[in-house]
Specification:
Elements lengths: L5 H18 L10 E2 L10 E2 L20 E6 L10 H13 L1 H4 L2 E6 L4 H9 L6 E5 L2 H6 L1 E3 L10 E7 L3 H5 L4 H6 L1 E5 L3 H8 L3 E5 L2 H9 L5 E5 H11 L6 E10 L4 E5 L4 H17 L1 H9 L2 H8 L3 E4 L21
Parallel strand pairs: 3-4, 8-9, 11-13
Antiparallel strand pairs: 1-2, 5-12, 6-12, 7-10, 7-11
Helix pairs in contact: 2-11
Length: about 325
């Protein structure tokens, strides 16, 4: 065995430490999710595996020939459970198509804004996939998997408000009055563009968690949240922000389906997701999997009796998927 001097040993130690850090950054899923024991009565949250966010300066781990590397952004915070279902569904589809498309490895990269995600996927950079609200810009720049992942649940938005404003909102009866109230949104969200086009008054922030605290401080009047989000969001924050409630009389209807978006340099990943989703749809497994996370009857009950303001949008690409009623949530 050759003799190693002190400098060689130090260099070897650094290399081994870097290899260990990188190898630990990848998180692969090969089994179905387990049901959480602490769930909202509206949305059944599944506890996913722990998420590691590797440092962006570290190189990506090498993977075997034929391995499908799937890279997506981590959630914004420990309480950010918005994508639990779509991430679990993605892993189920990848597993379902393993015989035909081969092995896969899922990597969680650091959390990033919607704008940053778009940039990274466009250049096939730090991530190569995102589940995001449909919009023409993304459809043109990326490979879109035209399949409504959440069955259009995000088309319906309830209003999270400060409890002291309950009477004010109960007295709102017209769209013009609601447009005059200040809606809290995020600069990079598709819903912001739609509401702005519809002449809503917006107060925009840059931080997902910060928006809840802005509402608590009454820097805006309401925070429109999707059916599949609002109940869990409120439950997760009720101890730290007890002033927030769900307004009981109003809702918005904004066409906002969620699609998988994939880098144009990853056509095989797009084909794999499309084939897997339609396979699960035809077998009936997709609806069963969806019901494991969601209770559509409870969603319908939550909308019942509310005044629903329909907001049109010009930001969606015309596609035949919108004419397949079996894929969409119905009131």
């Amino acid at each position: 065995m050759p003799h190693l001097n002190t400098g060689s040993i130090k260099l070897l130690t650094i290399v081994l430490l870097l290899f260990s850090a990188v190898a630990g950054s990848a998180v692969s899923f090969f089994s179905g999710p387990s049901r959480s024991t602490n769930t909202s009565p509206i949305t059944r949250v599944i506890t996913s595996a722990s998420i590691n966010s590797p440092a962006t300066s570290l190189p990506l781990p090498k993977h075997a020939s034929g391995m499908q590397l799937v890279k997506l952004a981590s959630p914004k915070s420990a309480m950010d459970r918005r994508n639990d279902y779509t991430i679990a569904l993605m892993n189920k589809v990848l597993e379902e198509t393993k015989d035909e498309f081969g092995p896969y490895q899922v990597m969680y990269m650091p959390a990033m804004s919607r704008k940053r995600q778009f940039s990274e996927i466009t250049r096939n950079g730090a991530i190569n996939i995102s589940d995001a609200p449909a919009c023409k810009d993304w459809d043109q720049a990326l490979n879109t998997v035209f399949f409504p992942l959440r069955r259009g649940l995000q088309n319906y938005r309830l209003l999270m408000i400060h409890r002291e404003d309950a009477l004010t909102f109960a007295n709102i009866t017209t769209l013009k009055e609601l447009q005059a109230a200040r809606a809290g949104t995020h600069h990079h969200w598709m819903s912001s563009r739609v509401l702005e086009s519809a002449n809503f008054t917006l107060v925009q922030g840059n931080d997902y968690e910060g928006l809840f605290h802005m509402l608590d401080q009454r820097r805006f009047d309401y925070f429109p949240r999707a059916l599949n989000e609002v109940f869990n969001e409120l439950e997760a924050r009720k101890k730290i922000i007890p002033s927030l409630i769900i307004e009981p009389t109003k809702a918005l209807n904004i066409p906002s389906p969620t699609f998988f978006y994939v880098s144009k340099e990853e056509p095989r990943l797009q084909a794999r997701l499309e084939k897997g989703l339609w396979k699960l749809q035809k077998s009936g497994e997709l609806k069963e999997f969806f019901n494991h996370f969601h209770d559509e009857d409870s969603y319908r009950s939550a909308l019942e009796g509310r005044q629903i303001f329909k907001i049109d949008t010009t930001h969606l690409t015309n596609h035949a998927i919108y004419k397949k009623p079996e894929l969409w949530f119905k009131m």
